[in-house]
Amino acid sequence: MNQNKNLIYLLVFLAGIILVWMINSEQVVTDPSNLVTENKEEPLIIVDGKIAPKLTNFVAHMEFIDEKTCLQCHAKEREMNFGSGPVLVKQMPHEYRDNCISCHILPK
Hints:
Blueprint: H1 2-25, E1 46-47, E2 50-51, H2 59-62, H3 67-74, E3 78-81, E4 86-89
Antiparallel strand pairs: 1-2, 3-4
């Protein structure tokens, strides 16, 4: 009886270790020291283990107005025409944050 009890404790302990390992192995961890940037002057902004992308060199991105302006295009995925032909505007892939430029770098 005592051997079965010890075996059960061992199996529960091993299952716990495997469960913790499985949960931690799915998380994305980025080591900023291994990343190479085009311009060393710009900071690397990592949110939830991912680098926030720089905004493209697009007319609407060149001058940041406010967060609500960003949502006018990025609230949902859709096709828009800005004069040079149709462009697929992607939906913002994360929850709304109060300050877009706290993570995203504006083009120069």
